Amino acid sequence: MKFRLLLLGLLLAPVALAEGLPDLGDYAQTVLPPQEERRIGEEIMREIRGSGQMVSDVEVADYLASVGYRLVANSSDNQQAFTFFVLQDPTINAFALPGGFIGVHTGLIQNARSESELASVLAHEIGHVVQRHLARMVAQQQRETIPSLAVLALSILMARANPELARAGIAASQAGTVQRQLDYTREHEREADRVGLQILNDTGFDTRAMPSFFETLMKGSRFYDGSAPSFLRTHPLTTERIADVRNRVEQLPYHQVPDSAEFHFVRAKLRAQQGTPADAVQFFENSLQEKKYNSEAAQHYGLALALIRSHEFESAEREVDLLRSAKQRHPMIESLAASLLIDLGRTHEALNLYRNALALFPKHRGLIYGYAGTLLTLNQPEEAIRFLSEKQLAFPNDGYLYELQSQGYTLLGKNLMRHQTQGEAYYRAYDLAAAIEQFELAAKSGDGDFYQLSIVEARLKQLRQQMGDPKKK
User: Fold this and answer.
1) d(Cα 239, Cα 280) in Å, to the nearest integer?
2) Distance between CA 46 and CA 42 in Å, rounded?
3) Above 90 in pLDDT, residue 315?
4) Which helix (H) or strand (E) holds 34?
5) Residue 29: pLDDT band with limits 50, 70, 90
6) What is the DSSP string of 404-416?
7) How many CA atoms lie within 13 A of 289 on its CB side?
């Protein structure tokens, strides 16, 4: 992925951008319509998924999305589709792609001192999207063609995902002018601050978190040997910007906002995956012993995960039992308890635990995935397929539910349905070519009835039309 992005960056034509932000009205939508932005974003997402950098842990992804959608609900554009995702990267960074795709590095989640600080960064990125800054940048370059727009978007991603790689591409393409294309203008940043701050306030988060987090980043950058966190390099901060945000915060009502349990559990989960298993165990044992934590439950949760990584399953079970002894159940703890039972070889107990937990938390995807996977492990594909079909009504865009269904149909020897569901999984991963290939295999399988084959052929025609495939006729 990185090599391909570097090549695309080298192809980018050096056209200067104006520093100001003209009143373009709807002209930006004429130059780069929302549907075209979304298409470009989906192309980039396919690259990201193929890179192996995307965090696949559904509990981490769902937590970020829950915070993101709360903020979006209070934005000015409720017609804009948003997708939030997490990248495995220790740097402090977040970025917005065309079409409402917003990525956050694990390093930012772990370095945020409060949930409001994390929300402040998401709100800033949402501000870029709802103000259509990419389209407005493109509108400054009226002669750019649509293929060039995809290159511009991918180059923006390159700068955010790997600033060092971006700098190499920029140097090879006459540095200065291209760099101005890769970064938002100063006015865009100030506008995203203002819009993001209003979203943050309307959602009920602590607005002081935005200037506080910005100040922390600026102070911390002094100890980076002349460099700065990625977020600063791609969202340049100035003392004037921070002062402007702080002045606006002082005019807003103050509310003290406690962090959610999920915020602490997700941060503990990410920390438990860092370094060697032994180092992770030591970290949580030390923090518990020294009482250096904001959430004791989250530290026990992280310790249990680290102990599982170390294959110390009995010690992990003691930590989980301690967590479950509390009166209030939490879906992330229930999911951890069930997966630990599987590690201990007590698969039927795990199945019952999943079933009971789903009665309390029917929409928690960590439990949904675990229950369906356990049914498949116990060779109960019919029950798994029925259960997954039911959950697809609540999560129609979840490709992994289709992938699990495909595994179930494979166990049953139903080839048409196996390829059809795998095709739907690829489609939801923005991989049209792979989806079409699976539907072609489904159409040739020869084991479906007339009704099933008709559905497959209609869907195949639809996908080919989206791809612009001449076979569609």
Assistant:
1) 37
2) 6
3) yes
4) helix 34-51
5) low
6) HHHHHHHHHT-HH
7) 6
**Left if phi > 0, otherwise alpha if psi is -120 to 50, otherwise beta: which for 420?**
alpha
**How far apart are the C-alpha atoms of 299 and 307, rounded to whole Å?**
12
Strands of the sheet containing 83-87, edge to edge, are 83-87, 101-105, 94-97
225 is catalytic: no
Burial of 311 (0-12, 13-18, 19+ CB in 10 A): exposed
Which residue in this structure is represented by tokens 């290939």? Answer: 437
Q: Examine the pLDDT at 239 and tell me if it is beyond 90.
A: no
Count CB atoms within 10 A of the CB of residue 321: 11
Beta-sheet pairing, 101-105 with 83-87 = parallel
What stretches of 251-380 show up as alpha helix (H) in DSSP? 261-272, 277-290, 296-309, 313-324, 331-343, 347-360, 365-377
Question: What torsion do the CA atoms of 243, 246, 251, 254 make, to the nearest 10 degrees?
Answer: -170
Q: Is 86 helix (H, G, I), strand (E, B) or coil?
A: strand
Strand, helix or coil at 11?
Answer: helix
Span 448-468, average pLDDT: 95
* Residue 440 is a catalytic residue: no
pLDDT in the model for residue 38: 85
Q: Which two tokens stand for residue 273?
A: 């995956």
A 10 A CB-CB count for 244 gives 16
Q: Is 53 helix (H, G, I), strand (E, B) or coil?
A: coil
| Distant-in-sequence, close-in-space partners of 49: CB < 8 Å, separation ≥ 6 | 429, 430, 431
Closest alpha carbon to 235 in 267, 284, 189, 269? 189
* Residue 404 CA: distances (Å) to CA of 26, 348, 418: 43, 19, 10
**% of the chain at pLDDT higher than 70:** 78
pTM, entire model? 0.84
Q: Which of 37, 59, 62, 193 is catalytic?
A: 193
Please give the residue that has the higher pLDDT: either 174 or 220.
220
Q: In degrees rounded to 5, what are phi and psi of residue 99?
A: 85, 10
Structure tokens belonging to residue 374: 């356990």
C-beta of residue 71 within 8 angstroms of C-beta of residue 123: yes
- Checking 6-10 for CB contacts under 8 A at 24+ apart, the result is 6/158, 6/165, 6/168, 6/169, 8/151, 8/154, 8/155, 8/158, 9/151, 9/154, 9/155, 9/158, 9/166, 9/169, 9/170, 9/173, 9/178, 10/169, 10/172, 10/173
Distance CA 375, CA 368 (A): 11
* C-beta of residue 213 within 8 angstroms of C-beta of residue 261: no
- Residue 385 · residue 418 · CB < 8 Å: no
Confidence grade of residue 231 (pLDDT, cut at 50, 70, 90):
low
Question: Amino acid letter at 227?
Answer: S
Q: Catalytic pick from 37, 62, 125, 424?
A: 125
